[in-house]
Specification:
Has a role in nuclear-cytoplasmic transport of proteins and mRNAs. 23% of the residues lie in helices and 45% in strands.
Length: 133
C-alpha cells in the first residue's frame, strides 16, 4: 500500500489561490470597501495603467470606480509559487457584468500574494486590465 501524504505542494497552492480568488471577487461584487483588508501599506495596484500604492489609496480607487454593482465570472485561474517570501502569483481571466449593461467586459488580473505572520496572505501586487477587441 502506498502512503498518502495528503495534498501535494502544488495542490495546496491551488487551494490557497482558489480560496483567495473566490474571496476577492465575492468582496468586490458584494462589499467592495472591505477589500482594503486584503492590502498592505506596501501594496501596489496597477489599474488600467494607473499605479496606486498603499491600503488607503487602493481602497479609495476601488470605491470610486464609476459603477456600484458588478458580477465577476472567472474563466481561468493559474498560480505559481513565488520565491519572494513564500508568496503565490495568481493570474485570473474572466468577464464582468456591470449592472444595466447588456455585454460583459473581458478582463485579466494578476496578484502576488505574500504570507503574513498570522498565517494568511495579503496582496503585494495587483495588476488589472480590461481586454478589448
Amino acid at each position: 500500500m502506498e502512503k498518502d501524504d495528503g495534498p501535494s505542494m502544488e495542490d495546496q497552492l491551488e487551494l490557497v489561490a482558489r480560496a483567495f480568488v473566490d474571496h476577492y471577487y465575492y468582496l468586490f461584487d458584494n462589499n467592495r470597501p472591505s477589500l482594503s483588508s486584503l492590502y498592505h501599506q506596501t501594496s501596489l495596484l496597477t489599474f488600467e495603467g494607473q499605479k496606486i500604492q498603499g491600503t488607503e489609496n487602493i481602497a479609495s480607487k476601488l470605491s470610486q470606480l464609476p459603477f456600484q454593482h458588478c458580477k465577476h465570472f472567472i474563466s481561468t485561474m493559474d498560480c505559481q509559487s513565488s520565491p519572494c517570501a513564500g508568496g503565490i502569483i495568481v493570474f485570473v481571466s474572466g468577464s464582468l457584468q456591470l449592472q444595466g449593461e447588456e455585454h460583459q467586459l473581458r478582463f485579466s488580473q494578476m496578484f502576488q500574494l505574500i504570507p503574513t505572520q498570522q498565517g494568511s496572505f495579503f496582496v503585494q501586487n495587483d495588476i488589472f486590465r480590461l481586454n478589448y477587441g
